[in-house]
Design goal:
2 copies of one chain form a homodimer. By secondary structure, chain A is mostly helical. The first copy, chain A, contains 6 helices and 2 strands, in the order αααββααα. Chain A is elongated and about 60 Å long. Chain A binds a DNA duplex (30 and 30 nucleotides) through helix 3.
DNA sequence: TCATATCCTAGTGGACTACTAGGATATATG
DNA sequence: CATATATCCTAGTAGTCCACTAGGATATGA
């Protein structure tokens, strides 16, 4: 038995927490050191993560004294799915179910009739439904709102 | 970026394929060697997998010439979730969301208000909804039937 | 007896995670 | 200008895990 396969990486968790913290700030910037302390993230590791986020355009930075990081896009345009794919790679239980990094299963005879694939396609769709429709803003907002999910979770296949 | 985090293990895929093949047989038994060839699974690896399945009571075996393996439980009582947990461990994107192996996130201040947790709870619930309600029989049956999903996918939280 | 099975334990190469380390470069302030 | 404070960039590393392979002990039917 594996430890936990479906688990997201620590790095992705840090990235999401950092982005949420930046969204909390709203307009002001914060240094990596301060952010690291506030969110209990190893500082040097956080720097690498912020570099990834910057490379993707989610975050902007300023160097030197009084420098720091700030969100570059509105919090309601950044989805959990986007961040997760950026840091952790494809969201797909099988390579043959990935949209951004499709690869056939090497030992699979016929993809169209694969019964394992058919079931995990449902899993993938439902996970994506949540991740691609939930934004940082959703996660922050009003505790009253129940983080709702919309229609058509399982696609049309 | 990771290769693919949400991916199930090759071992779990083999286990599911093996069980489906056993369910196809229906009543008759088959040797590991034959099953391995049919499903393109490394023979020795498959033996280990079958041992796991046997230990869990899903499969029975007979030794010696004319020995082999057979399903021990009806195919409509074996869920994908059960097999996945058996082979791959907990189905939870965060340790604090696992039901069978709960552990708090070490760097998490307050679980109740954790915004990352809140979102991934939805992911976990929707994945479990599929996996715990889909049986081997469902995966085998009639191509007409669309592998439907029932109500209340997101729990009551 | 002998071929054919399952059963059981070890071990291994390669990949990946979660960091740490060290310093180069840029910027505000005195 | 000097200095403190930041970001930026590249390497490296201990530990863990996956996906097997290897080798043989044990049981069973012919």
């Amino acid at each position: 038995m594996r430890d936990d396969p479906s688990m997201i990486s620590q790095k992705a968790k840090y990235a999401l927490r950092a982005l949420l913290a930046l969204a909390d700030l709203d307009a002001v910037s914060i240094s990596a050191a301060e952010l690291a302390e506030r969110e209990r993230i190893p500082r040097k590791f956080l720097e690498q993560i912020l570099a990834d986020l910057k490379r993707d355009g989610l975050v902007q930075s300023r160097r030197g004294a009084a420098g720091g990081y700030a969100l570059l896009k509105p919090a309601d345009t950044i989805t959990f799915g986007h961040v997760l794919r950026l840091i952790d790679g494809p969201i797909a239980p099988l390579p043959c179910l990935s949209r951004i990094a499709y690869r056939p299963c090497e030992d699979c005879e016929d993809e169209a009739t694969c019964r394992v694939r058919k079931v995990f396609a449902l899993v993938a769709n439902s996970a994506r439904a949540v991740l691609d429709q939930t934004t940082l803003a959703d996660a922050i907002a009003h505790p009253g709102r129940p983080l709702g999910l919309p229609q058509d979770i399982f696609g049309t296949a």
